Amino acid sequence: MSKLDQAMADMHDAMQEMELNNIVEVIYMDKRYEDPANDDFKELAYATERSAGLDLRAALDTEYVLQPGEVKLIGTGVKIFMRDPYMMSALLPRSGLGHKHGIVLGNLVGVIDADYQNELFVSCWNRSNTPFTIKPGERFAQMVFLPICRPTLKKVAEFSESTERGLGGFGSSGRK
Question: Which of 35, 71, 96, 143 has the greatest number of CB atoms lying within 10 Å of its CB?
Fold first, then answer.
């Protein structure tokens, strides 16, 4: 097992030990989530056993046509609370919408801090040349939970060691 694999396994074990903190509380502000007859608004759930992200749904009252180049902030009708202060969630585009239709996030990645407790909003950007219709309850983004670390910052005049890359910038490590 590589050092990285071991570190990931250790992190996973530590997260499991903190089971209480591994709970994310959810409030469904939009009552359509609670209507069992409404197939367009299903509660947050992982699509498969190994899904990394939870699909977020557009809490729109009517269809919205996102014009080419337009950016629109769309609510999800969902609030979350991450009990673990060392957890965050990342809002990401859905792969198919981004690749096939050019629908991505206006801020590219949305960072939700552990202490944020208001409705989740998604900045939707139509980077294509054609209008795209977003329907109420449509899965239009995804949310992934990640552990974070907050290192202590130490002000120094010089770094304690130099690396092979050093001051090399974009592309300095090559393509192969």
Answer: 143
List, in sequence order, the alpha helices (H) in 60-146.
95-101
**Closest to 27 (Cα-Cα) out of 123, 119, 113:** 119
**Fold (CATH) for 26-147:** Deoxyuridine 5'-Triphosphate Nucleotidohydrolase; Chain A (2.70.40)
pTM: 0.81
Q: Which percentage of the chain shows pLDDT scores above 70? A: 96
- Checking if the pLDDT of 151 tops 70, the result is yes
Q: CA nearest 145: which of 12, 33, 30?
A: 12
Rounded CA separation 21/25 (Å): 10
Domain residue ranges of the chain, discontinuous segments joined by +: 26-147
Decide if 29 contacts 78 (C-beta within 8 A): yes
